[in-house]
Amino acid sequence: MSSPAAAKKVHIATFGCQMNRYDSDRLAELLAAHGYALAEDPASADLIILNTCSVREHAAQKVYSQLGALKSLKRRRPGLIIGVGGCLAQQEGARLLENVPHLDLVFGTDALEEVPALVDEAVRGRRRVHTPRPRRATLARTSVAGPGELKALVTVMQGCDNYCAYCVVPYVRGPERSRPAGEILEEVAARVEAGAREVTLLGQNVNSYRDPAGVDFPELLRRVAAVPGLWRVRFTTSHPKDLSPRLIETMAGEERVMEQLHLPAQAGSDRVLAAMRRGYTREQYLAKVRAFRRAMPQGALGGDIIVGFPGESEEDFAQTMRLLEEVRYDFLFSFKYSDRPHTVARHLKGKLSEEVKARRLQELQVRQRQITLAIHQALEGSVQEVLVEGPAKRGQGLMTGRSRAGRAVNFPGEELVGRLVMVRIEQGRVNSLLGRVVTDTTREV
Ligand code: SAH
Ligand code: SF4
Ligand code: F3S
User: Fold this and answer.
1) Interacting residues of 300 by C-beta distance below 8 A, sequence separation 6+
2) C-alpha span between 18 and 90 (Å, rounded)
């Protein structure tokens, strides 16, 4: 390994979901052991890696435009190595190398461990593509050290077996594989040791987590929540078809498991849900929502909605709008349908125009903002437990943190980073709550 003074630098740009952020941390760790220090600024880096997403056309385009922007940097510094990893790399493989002449390296979602060796080959002038198909048997041991941050992400499972009609994830991330619970617990403990107080467990569908020893997700949650020194546990994402009463009981019963559930519906009409191959009806979805609300009335429910799925009629869309009224989501991510490679939906008839999709998305988002604002205003006067993260990005002189339900809370205060405080809410806004600290309840670790 090189001496610190001579250390090379790597800049990693991460696109897409939290699972990619986790992989980027792991990659940084692998490359650090190989003599590459992290660089904030791509202009000063010897190696630039884009960890990519392919979930929607727009996500893929962002990667291509970033790659285009790197062309002149490469021209000025021919020694610079540029690599592309993650879901778009897995999807495109050798095509990426053919289409982007200034690219040196393409690696897939199941090839992180090989990256240091591939980089060495690229340095020696050999352009490489390594995108092995993710297999059920291969689940690389992931990070145990991790960066010293207050909030840690820990991937508990890889891949997805659901094959929703619109989704590329099973093709680029491979089949579902659960990490052994013992390994996850070790990793969480190491992150707590390094300063983490909150952990978010990640998977495309954590409800179908089952490790080789038979530990299921509620049991894993219970064990993670018991790790000494850890204050808060969250998780994402839950597939509605697999959300069990036991999981809801565990969430409600475990003090350290936060009352926040991300439960994507995708659509409000049974016809569209069936075409999407989601495996539940509107009513089955609503029954799960009611169970969550009953068990955790203070909790927050989130969702994802796709508008403009092929064949979605005005009446189907109206049913999605009515779903918003019935569920009253605390937070919602919404997207225009986009055709993805390999998927069933790309071959369906009844594709909708960009105009129709844009109009529906706009209508949905306007209504959801009103709902979120009303929910936040109803919290005025309440007292929320907040884990303080640091200065608020946009609030001058304000600190920010998250409530148990995951809402952003801003308040005046200093030197409270890493503490759990009680904040009285004075104003509910669309994107945050504004309040004042009433007590500092920081627990002993
Ligand atoms: N595993 C998660 C979703 C991961 S992808 C789940 O099942 O809930 C994140 C979100 O992207 C999805 O919930 C969906 O709303 C959206 N999405 C996926 N494919 C899409 C496509 N082809 N077009 C538009 N949105 C899509
Ligand atoms: Fe995609 Fe469906 Fe799997 Fe989620 S559950 S990752 S939407 S295939
Ligand atoms: Fe994107 Fe891959 Fe995540 S496609 S959403 S980065 S699993």
Assistant:
1) 259, 260, 261, 330, 331, 405, 406, 407
2) 17
Query: 163 CA distance to ligand 2 centroid (A)?
Result: 6
CA gap 127, 149 in Å, rounded: 35
Ligand 3 centre distance from Cα of residue 381 (Å): 39
Write the CA distances from 259 to 82, 262, 295, integer angstroms: 42, 10, 10
Nearest by Cα to 184 from 219, 208, 151: 219
Of the ligands numbered here, which is closest to the C-alpha atom of 204?
Answer: 1
Distance CA 350, CA 308 (A): 10
For a ligand 2 pocket test, name from 204, 208, 272 the mutation site with the most ligand atoms within 8 angstroms of its C-beta.
Answer: 204
Stretch 220-235: mean pLDDT = 98
Collapsing DSSP to helix, strand or coil, 52 comes out as strand
Predicted TM-score (pTM) above 0.90: yes
Tell me how far apart the alpha carbons of residues 87 and 107 are, in angstroms, rounded to a whole number.
9
pLDDT single digits (tens) 291-347: 999 999 999 999 999 999 999 999 999 999 999 999 999 999 999 999 999 999 999
Q: Is the CB of 158 under 6 A from ligand 3?
A: no
Domain architecture of the chain: domains with CATH:
8-130 (3.40.50.2300), 145-258 (3.30.750.210), 267-276+297-378 (3.30.750.200), 383-444 (2.40.50.140)
Q: Which ligand lies nearest to the CA atom of residue 24 in the structure?
A: 3
